[in-house]
Every structure is written in C-alpha cells, then in structure tokens.
Amino acid sequence: MADDPTITLLLVDDHPVVRDGLRGMFSASPGFTVLGEASGGVEAVALAVRLDPDVVLMDLRMPGGSGVEAIAELTRRGARAKVLVLTTYDTDSDTLPAIEAGATGYLLKDAPRDELFTAVRAAAAGRTVLSPAVASRLVTAVRSPAPADATLSAREREVLTLVAKGTSNREIARVLFISEATVKTHLTHIYAKLDAKDRAAAVANAYDRGILG
C-alpha cells in the first residue's frame, strides 16, 4: 500500500556480490531503504546499534564473526532490529542456534524475490518467518526425543569443554575467536541451563548429564 511505512534494512553477508544483489533488489522496490552493509558479525552489531534498522538480513557463516554470535549480541543489547537469517545452510547445527539466539526468521538464499520481500515485511512487523525446510526441521526437533546435551548450543558445548580443561575466559576467547564478553554471555547461559552457580558446578552437572565425557 502507498501509505505503508518504509522498512529500513541492514545487509550482512561476507560476499560483496550477494550484498550488491540484495541492495539492488531492495533499492529498486518501493517500501524499502537499505541503510548499510556489513561483511561480518562484529561489524553487523556495531552498524545495527548505530543505524537502528527495522530488519537485519543476516548471513550465518562469515569470517568476520558468525551470524549466530551477532544475533545473540543484538538480543543481549536489546536492539530494536528484527533479525531475518538469509543463508544457504539449513542444517540443525545452523538453524536451531540462530533461532535460540533470537532470530525472528530463517530463509534460504534460493527463496524467490517476492517471498523474501514478504518475509522482510513480516519480520519488521514482529512475525516469525521460516522457510518450509527449516519449519520441517523444527517440528522434527520438537517431536523427537532430545539428547542429553540438547539444551546447550554447539558453541556453548565448545565453551564448556574448554572450561572443563581449566581454560580461562581470555584463553577461551582467543581459541574460539570471540570476545571475552561473549564468553561470559555463553557462561551465563550455560549456568542457567545446567542449574549451576559457577564453573565447577557447571562442569560437574555436565558430566552427570553425559554432556561431557
């Protein structure tokens, strides 16, 4: 509709050709304004905080900081922007952590143009958008018996494994190429999920549940 407000966007993808294609697509369509672009998760968080877009189109696997980490950080900061994942990956290891981190929607890059536009409008309105393949995986995950370590994301298990080896937060950050603040955020989530008050209790509970060892 002509009186619909313009939806502002931040495009996040490590491939310039993909960003160029998305920018051209949205710029040519009324109702959308691209505020900026980022090539990695760290840059995406900084730009999203500064530009305050309605929707962030987020790729997941990027050398400049993963999309999942960026989503989690934006959620932690209480950012207004809705994050719509746009990626080529639909595996459980990609889908579930992104949604757990706070993504509003999840689409694959082979989605038709009109479907992408509809998804962005829905995300801006706060509605959840999932590609059929992703929706099917989530239904299967909900219906299937969960393994003992299903409560922890893949990255949380990595952090916990290093904690069990006595690794410091600073060293964990170095090994996993993330910030110390992100390590602390993961530990907070781990403590909550394992009902633990500190590192030692988290490791002990993890061994009891079969998550470690």
UniProtKB/TrEMBL annotation:
Keywords: DNA-binding, Phosphoprotein, Transcription, Transcription regulation. Residues 145-210 form the HTH luxR-type domain. PROSITE patterns: HTH_LUXR_1, HTH_LUXR_2, RESPONSE_REGULATORY. InterPro entries: CheY-like_superfamily (IPR011006), NreC/VraR/RcsB-like_REC (IPR058245), Sig_transdc_resp-reg_C-effctor (IPR016032), Sig_transdc_resp-reg_receiver (IPR001789), Tscrpt_reg_LuxR_C (IPR000792), WalR-like (IPR039420). The modification 4-aspartylphosphate is found at residue 59. Transmembrane segments: none annotated. Residues 8-124 form the Response regulatory domain. It holds the Pfam family GerE. It comes from the Bacteria. This is Response regulator transcription factor. The lineage of its organism: Bacteria, Bacillati, Actinomycetota, Actinomycetes, Kitasatosporales.
